Amino acid sequence: MNGTLLTEFLILGFSEMPHLQVPLFLGFLCLYMAAISGNLLIMVTVSASPALHTPMYFFLFNLAMVDILCTSTILPKLLDTMVGGRMISYWGCMAQLYFFTWSMGAELLLFSAMAYDRFVAICCPLHYGAWMGPRVCAFLAGLVWSISLTNTSVNTSLVLRLPFCSSNVIEHFFCEIPPLLKLSCAPTQLNEAMAFAADVFLAVGNFSVIILSYGFIVASILRIRSAEGKRRAFSTCSAHVIVVTMYYSTVIYTYIRPASSYSLNKDKVVSVIYTSVAPTLNPLIYTLRNKDVKVALRRLLFCC
């Protein structure tokens, strides 16, 4: 096993708070069910409604797939640890790390693609059809999935090279890079450097692109003469900005510092946001508050 002496890990989870196990279990179960049902509803609605076959909803469809991948990678095992199944095999841990890192990278890149779509729609409406045609959207989606796949392949491969020969207790509720690096009995400078580089590119870089895009968007909105037009434009952007800020800040906090500064309690709370809360809120924020989606949902349910 690449020099690895351990064959399984013990996921600590939330065991230090036994009196909260039942409410935490019920809470995460509700989050998981809401995330899966909400994102599946988005995918079905977008697929079945020709009016939603636009670039904006194309990227929302991809975001729903990413959120399902993320929550299905993390939450089932988390729920299992709360009822006693705290052991995870070495390869099971590596698989969880691989798919979680893949979904996280794809989500960060999709936020940028969505911001670019809004930038073109608001700032360059006359060129929207040409700049955001089907081929461009397919190309951007391909970049999102391929770049995130490359990132997770590199970082997971680097973790696979590490020997784990002392403690097997993961001080977290899932297999993530920082707590795994703390368990290695070999130098982890290369792993930390690559995780830092990935965070700078995926989190800081894409967040800068989003901030720049919204800078142009705000400038364009301010030039709109109609107060109603300004209100509608701001309302479609504000929710996106809030969620993006929450998601990016937690990811940057987790990955842009050395593994030696990892803190059990703080990092658990931060990780809950981008593994459970954000995928659950995305359907509500990006689509269910949208008038076009509400109309499509009513038509879909009426036809059924």
From TrEMBL:
The keyword rRNA processing does not apply. Keywords: Cell membrane, G-protein coupled receptor, Membrane, Olfaction, Receptor, Sensory transduction, Transducer, Transmembrane, Transmembrane helix. The keyword Transmembrane helix applies. It is found in: Cell membrane. Residues 38-286 form the G-protein coupled receptors family 1 profile domain. The chain crosses the membrane at residues 20-44, 56-75, 95-116, 128-148, 200-222, 234-256, 268-288. PROSITE patterns: G_PROTEIN_RECEP_F1_2. InterPro entries: GPCR_Rhodpsn, GPCR_Rhodpsn_7TM, Olfact_rcpt, Olfactory_GPCR. Its main location: membrane. It is a multi-pass membrane protein. CDD domains: 7tmA_OR13-like. This is Olfactory receptor 13G1-like. It comes from the Eukaryota. Signal peptide: none annotated.
